[in-house]
Amino acid sequence: MTEVSALAASDDMRPRAVRGRILLRRLARHRSFRVGAGIVFVIVVLALAAPLISSGQPNAMALRNRFAPPSAEFWFGADNFGRDIFTRVLYGARNSLWIGFASATLAAVGGALVGLASAWFRTLDGIIMRIMDALLAFPAILLAIGINAALGPQVSSVIIALASAYVPRIARVVRATALVVRELDYVDAARVSGAGAGRIIFRHILPNSLAPLLVSVTFVFAYAILAEAALSFLGIGPPPPHPSWGNIIAEGRDYSVEAWWIMLFPGLAISLAALGMNLLGDGLRDVLDPRLKIEA
Amino acid sequence: MPKLIAFRIAQAIPVMFFVAVLTFLLMHLLPGDPATIIAGDMADREAVAQVRRDLGLDQPVAAQLWLWFSNVLQGDFGRSLMLNQPVAEAVVERLPVTLSLALVAFAITIPFGIVLGMVAAVWRDTWADSAVMIVALVGVSVPNFWIAILSVILFSVTLGWLPSSGYVPLTLSFSGWLASLIQPAVVLALFQIGYLARMTRSAMLDVLDQDYIRTARAKGVSPRVTIAKHAFRNTLMQVITVSGYILSLLIGGSVVIEQIFALPGIGRLLVQAIMARDYPVVQGTLLLLGFSFVFINILIDLIYAYIDPRVRYD
Prior knowledge:
The complex is a heterodimer.
Chain A: H1 3-29, H2 31-48, H3 50-53, H4 85-120, H5 122-136, H6 140-151, H7 155-181, H8 185-192, H9 197-208, H10 210-234, H11 245-252, H12 261-288
Helix pairs in contact in A: 2-4, 2-12, 4-5, 4-7, 4-10, 4-12, 5-7, 6-7, 7-10, 8-9, 10-11, 10-12, 11-12
Chain B: H1 2-28, H2 34-39, H3 45-55, H4 61-73, H5 87-122, H6 127-141, H7 144-158, H8 174-208, H9 211-218, H10 223-260, H11 266-276, H12 279-307, H13 309-312
Helix pairs in contact in B: 1-12, 5-6, 5-8, 5-10, 5-12, 6-8, 7-8, 8-10, 9-10, 10-11, 10-12, 11-12
């Protein structure tokens, strides 16, 4: 690196750090971001601390407790095998949050790579975007069902299915931003000072396209939690007995009238988690990128 | 306009091509040997090999793709293994159910979503805005299949107002048709109402910021007329662009909802086919659904161009 560009880089660092602090302060003041981040934080802590909060095992059966209604002993009641629903919802959070997080992250990486490639290599743009259009022709849930059907019912295939369903959506957002950023002066400056394609893409275009990417990923996280639950409910999600919020509801469905507690509480957990992510995403969008429009 | 129609259709051809390739490749990822499944449990090796030859499964993937393409172009989507009938026939039989469900849900979504979004935008930062946005946020956060079960417990089991399952064809009785669809359609619409209300609100806020709104108010047009004529019409333009997307989502969402209300639609067929590993049906259903989504997009683009001349002459 030459002295000039080193100087430019260090010059760049200060305002960026200041900008970061301003953004953080604005986020901390944003009401829906605070509420959303609070909800998500509590759910993540509960999921991680599951063994500390509940002494029971999520799959421990006790037939004498079959269909025990909510009580001091069974906060959320017990299911048809006498398993404690509270414990199952706690451990189910691990599965559901992991699937949501992993698929959102995978979709972000894949979508960013596709979007950047499309924006940078203009000759590939046409064909890449037509393939993305073909994927976008399917609603995400349908694509996830199809891919998941092909890969078989495992946690990993649910993650791959959901990630692939959301890659084109994120790719479109990243491509749109990257197309704007690549025309900016500092990209020209980087090119003139001899930076290669890889360096320009990953050091200049990507960091400056992060805001819409980050906002999209939080919404994808929320959708992924809902979609995972739907897949599990249809019986093509992570297989029982490992609890996920979706398959607890699926298992409780047959008893939804007599033992409503089996399906009520995991549903509340899904709603709360998705609500938290949506609020958090709204806050991020308001602060980072108010004009961004995201498709489910 | 005819030129635009031709252009949009020409644009859709590569997309449809990739939809077809994608569906084809997806089914080739399926674990297990389709020939073994088709031939059945009792078949010996000879029979399996015969099935494989008959279906062209011993050919290279590219040749199989070509064979499948030429069949599809002739309207032959293969035969269902579990139903023992042509896939196209099975899909066409179930299409009215899914379309009815999606269209009734669409008819509920559009007015509710737009009105709620406009109320929130016009009375921005008041209790009405907060109330609408909370409802919209809950709508996009609550899993619809869960709401569906709760709704059945309340309206069908406890109150006995609506049937909990089954479908009555429109040709048989209109009121029966509507009664069988209203509950699933409302549940299906909830998410979209939330989504559309949020979209409409932000679109309307954009429009209310425009110079022509200020001009209208400055020249003495009443607030009501400004909103009803100037703001509403221009907001509608943006709403139309997402309405096709909403219809696609409703069709996709019906896959899950049909399971709960035992509606014999395409979604139910798809899930049954996945469970039974009836791969011609999975392939055919996904392909037809994919094509219909491409078609909906073209239609929306054309409606948009029809309403907004600027798009037409661009």
